[in-house]
Each structure stands twice: as C-alpha cells, then as structure tokens.
C-alpha cells in the first residue's frame, strides 16, 4: 500500500511514517532542536507524546513498549546531551534485539564542525551500539530514510536505529513524500537444511532446545511447544526469555541465566544435540561461554547469519525466521528414544525451582504471593540485581508475552519499561521488580507515570546496598566493604511525593494486602519490601560468604 503526499513539512512527513507503523506512543524529553516535530505530533490524535523526566528513562520506556507491543519503540531527544543520556536504552535495545528508532535533534547545519552548542557527531557516536545510524541532510530524503530506519529496526535481527536531524531541516518542505508499508521478510529453511537437522536428531540420545528471544519476536511460542511435544525434546530458556515456553510444561527444564542451579546446567551439559533457536548464545546463557562442548552437535537457527558460528561452530546452521523454521521442523521423521531422560531432567528442574512450604526469607514469600495472586495475563518487568534471582529461580511463567527484562543487565530499567508495557497493554496489570539501587536511578519516572495516569505497580527490594556488587566484594575482598553501602531511603514516602501510592511492608501478609489493593488503583503504586541485608542472594548469605573466604 502506497500513499503520496505533496507539499508537506518535514515534521509532518515523519509523523505520517509513525502512523503507518501503527505507533501509538512516542517518548521524549523535550528539546528546542526538534520542536516542530513535537508540534506535528500535537496535531495527530493517534499519537500520544510521553514527556519523561530523563532521556534514559524515556529510552527504557520506548524499549519496554517495543517488547510488549511488538512494534518499534520511538524516542526523541536533543543533541549530544540528550543523546548521551538515552544511550543506555540504545545499548539495551541492541543487546536485546529490540526494534527502536531514535530521532535526535542536531545543531543547525551552518554550525556543524565548529563545536556548536551541544554538538556531537551523533551518527558516529552511536554507531558501535546501534544497528544503523544516519544523519539526514536533505529534506527530500526524509520519507525514504525514515522508512528505511523502521525497516532496518524490524528486519533480520531487530535492533535500534538512530536518526540525526539538523535543526534547520525542520523548516523545509518536501515536494512529494511517498509513504509505503514496511514488509518484514520471514526467511524459511531449505529442504536440505531440514534434512540436516533430521539426521542429527535421528542419531541423538539426549537432545535439548535452547530457546531465545527470536522465538518470541517471531511469535512462534505455540509452534515451539508443538515441536517439543511431538519429539519429546526438553526446552531451556535463554537468559531472561523465561516466557518463551510455559514453565509448568513437563518438557520445560529451566532458565539459563545468572546463578542458574547446577541441575539445570547439567541438563544442557548432558545433551548430545543442542538446538539453539533465536538465541545468540550470549555470555550469560552459556555460563561464560563454557556451557557447550565440541562433543555436542549444535543446530543453530537464527534470522541473522552473523549470529551463526559467532560463539560456537554449528554442525547445522539455518538462517531462518523462528516461526518458519519450526513449521518446517514439525515435518521431520524422528522417533524419540529419550523420553525417560527428558522426564528425569524435568524432575531435576522441579526440585531446584520449587519454593519450600515454609518460606526461608521474605524474598521467597514475595515471589510466592506474586505467583498466587497475579492474573495470568499480568506482565512482569525487572531491573538488574540479585533480587531478581528469586524471580528467575522460583516464579513460574506459564503464559507467553508476560515477561520483559534487560539481557544487557541495565540498572534502572524495570520501572520505566513497565510504563512502556502498560501503555502498550493498558488493560493488563504490569508489575516491575527493582532493587533500591536500580530503582533510584530512574525513580523520577514515577512522576511521569503519575502525570499520565499510568497505574503501574513497582516492587522495590530495599536492603540499602548495591547487592550484586556487594556479593562479589564479599567473595573476593571479604570484610573490606567500600562503595557498596547505600543510605536509608523511604521509597514509600518518596512515592507519595510523586503523587503515587506508597506502602512499606515487612511481612508476607502486608505484602499480599498491598499487592491486591494495587490492582484496582488508578495511579502508580510503590510497594517497598524491607529485606534482610544479610540474605545477599538466593544461594548464600553474607555471613556464609565470609566463612567461605576465611576457610580458604
């Protein structure tokens, strides 16, 4: 479908491109360098501009919106200072393979190269962490290059694209703008590729699937389940892709992340054939690149050819969309002989991930309450930090598209990403989990959520320290604490200052009451969970870490 518009301003041409992409929300911190674009959005009822308190928060909102909606996240900022602030969101989108288009106002063309006010070569600055960057200098090329940006962001392995727009370009008109639909190619494996997979599985005794974000982006979760069931192949989720396969399914065998229990790692190590679908086999997923061995036959399926063989040499490599690949793999002729092994590995996972009847600490009680009371269509986001270990280990993600987390490990991500997800699905309950260190990094966006009446629920685990770094500090430099203690902050009271609800809880009953109450609130809620500083991780306390160090 093609639309031709004549005698249109640059700003309105960009808005037409956003409309054609079905974008509903655009995130920003306002800047004078792109005021005409903001004004054009003012006239477009299908677009809502969300003005954030910090560009980093705005970029996390756009990234969370993209993950939830399946559309490209769009974020606007001004010149070098705004661009630098939102770089963390661009990096997150790159590592998470999230489609994002960033529009950055640039200094006036006549001032370029003179170290103008806030001048940075934005396209060069972002080149290492973006999928593509471009500075548009001719108004007539705006429709062409903006649509190309969305095409690049969405196709192949998705990622962020950065567009630099000199301030003066907004005061020009375009004689003829052609706006078209952007088609996303869905490559399928060849018959020869499928035969290669079949031959490996026919010889296999203990195959396993590692499923990543490519399965989610292809909306192939249902096909993955059918594939696993047809051939009785156990499935492990790549780092922070928990919802790629129902965790309560008899063939789910765990999440490959930070602090993964040994029985789950052992499942992959025992496998003689590994089918990696839509995962780049990252450092965390592969446990510091030590998970797989040359003795295992690797079948690597990804839409991006650059991913294949980047970490491990595959026996069979398929450049294919996850949905198309799984459709074809459902046709292979393989008789599984590994059902007993798969069942045994499932039991190992259940033993490692089942919460005890008597909760050992408050963190476990919180996860148990979330599991019991959250509706099935709730969305959970989380920050980086050791508190997430309890979520990753014990929470059962039983539905697709219910989890959003940063594989980049970005602190400050959880709450702004929840804002983006809630805007994508306003009818669903959206809960973020953060530590006190990460929450403070973007807490100002709670005011953004209040201002736009976005009733997210933010759970803050407060132990007054940078817990993950403190854990490593106690391991390697026991009792030499420096830089990891934080001051005592009442996040519940701060929330009220941001026109949100704030509740401090110290027991499971208090938490459950606050959680259930938050479901019907019309403004954001912060539930401050006061945790034991000694309980530094799922597997250890600070006292235990110090004892280990003393015994060396």
UniProtKB/TrEMBL annotation:
In alphabetical order, the GO MF annotations are:
acetolactate synthase activity; flavin adenine dinucleotide binding; magnesium ion binding; thiamine pyrophosphate binding
Domain of life of the native organism = Bacteria
Ranges for the Thiamine pyrophosphate enzyme N-terminal TPP-binding domain? 9-121
Keyword terms: Thiamine pyrophosphate
Residue ranges annotated for the Thiamine pyrophosphate enzyme central domain, each copy included: 197-329
Identify the InterPro entries for this entry: DHS-like_NAD/FAD-binding_dom (IPR029035), THDP-binding (IPR029061), Thiamin_PyroP_enz_cen_dom (IPR012000), Thiamin_PyroP_enz_TPP-bd_dom (IPR012001), TPP-bd_CS (IPR000399), TPP_enz (IPR045229), TPP_enzyme_TPP-bd (IPR011766)
Q: Entry's SUPFAM superfamilies? A: DHS-like NAD/FAD-binding domain, Thiamin diphosphate-binding fold (THDP-binding)
Annotated Thiamine pyrophosphate enzyme TPP-binding domain residues: 383-529
Task: Name a biological process GO annotation.
Answer: L-valine biosynthetic process
Pfam families to which the protein is assigned, alphabetical: TPP_enzyme_C, TPP_enzyme_M, TPP_enzyme_N
Q: PROSITE patterns, alphabetically?
A: TPP_ENZYMES (PS00187)
One Gene Ontology cellular component annotation held by this UniProt entry? acetolactate synthase complex
Q: Which family does it belong to?
A: Belongs to the TPP enzyme family.
Name-wise, this protein is Acetolactate synthase
Native source species? Parageobacillus thermoglucosidasius (Geobacillus thermoglucosidasius)
Question: What does the record give as the organism's lineage?
Answer: Bacteria, Bacillati, Bacillota, Bacilli, Bacillales
């Amino acid at each position: 479908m093609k639309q031709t518009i004549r005698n249109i301003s640059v700003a309105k041409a960009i808005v037409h491109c956003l409309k054609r992409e079905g974008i509903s929300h655009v995130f920003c911190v306002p800047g004078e360098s792109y005021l005409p674009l903001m004004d054009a959005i003012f006239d477009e009822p299908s677009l809502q501009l969300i003005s954030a308190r910090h560009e980093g928060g705005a970029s996390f909102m756009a990234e969370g919106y993209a993950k939830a909606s399946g559309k490209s996240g769009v974020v606007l900022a001004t010149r070098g200072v705004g661009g630098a602030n939102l770089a963390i969101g661009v990096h997150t989108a790159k590592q998470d393979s999230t489609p994002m288009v960033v529009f950055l106002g640039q200094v006036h063309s006549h001032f370029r190269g003179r170290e103008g006010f806030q001048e940075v070569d934005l396209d060069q600055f972002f080149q290492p962490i973006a999928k593509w960057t471009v500075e548009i200098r001719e108004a007539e090329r705006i429709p062409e290059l903006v649509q190309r940006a969305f095409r690049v962001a969405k196709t192949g392995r998705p990622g962020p694209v950065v567009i630099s727009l000199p301030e003066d370009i907004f005061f020009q008109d375009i004689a003829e703008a052609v706006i078209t639909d952007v088609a996303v190619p869905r490559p399928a494996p060849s018959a020869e590729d499928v035969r290669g997979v079949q031959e490996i599985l026919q010889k296999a005794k203990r195959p396993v699937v590692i499923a990543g974000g490519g399965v989610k982006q292809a909306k192939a979760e249902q096909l993955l389940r059918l594939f696993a069931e047809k051939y009785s192949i156990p499935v492990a989720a790549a780092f922070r892709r928990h919802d790629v396969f129902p965790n309560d399914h008899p063939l789910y065998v765990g999440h490959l992340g930070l602090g993964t229990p040994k029985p789950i790692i052992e499942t992959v190590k025992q496998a003689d054939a590994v089918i990696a679908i839509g995962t780049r086999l990252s450092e965390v997923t592969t446990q510091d690149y030590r998970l797989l061995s040359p003795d295992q036959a690797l079948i690597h399926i990804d839409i991006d050819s650059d991913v294949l063989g980047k970490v491990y040499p595959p026996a069979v490599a398929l450049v294919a969309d996850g949905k198309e690949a799984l459709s074809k793999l459902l046709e292979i002729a393989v008789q599984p002989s590994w059902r007993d092994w798969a069942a045994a590995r499932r039991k190992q996972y259940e033993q490692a991930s089942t919460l005890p009847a008597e909760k050992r600490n408050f963190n476990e009680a919180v996860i148990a309450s979330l599991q019991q009371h959250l509706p099935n269509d709730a969305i959970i986001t989380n920050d980086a930090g050791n508190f997430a270990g309890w979520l990753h280990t014990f929470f059962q993600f039983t539905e697709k598209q219910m989890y959003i987390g940063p594989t980049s490990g970005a602190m400050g991500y959880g709450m702004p990403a929840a804002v983006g997800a809630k805007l994508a699905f306003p009818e669903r309950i959206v809960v973020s989990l953060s530590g006190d260190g990460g929450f403070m990094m973007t807490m100002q966006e709670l005011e953004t959520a209040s201002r736009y009446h976005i009733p997210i629920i933010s759970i803050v685990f407060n132990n007054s320290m940078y817990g993950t770094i403190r854990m490593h500090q106690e391991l390697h430099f026991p009792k030499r604490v420096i830089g990891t203690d934080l001051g005592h902050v009442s996040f519940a009271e701060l929330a009220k200052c941001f026109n949100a609800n704030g509740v401090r809880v110290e027991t499971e009953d208090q938490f459950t009451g606050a959680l259930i109450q938050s479901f019907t609130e019309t403004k954001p809620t912060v539930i401050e969970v006061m945790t034991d500083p000694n309980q530094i991780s799922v597997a250890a306390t600070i006292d235990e870490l110090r004892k280990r160090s003393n015994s060396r």
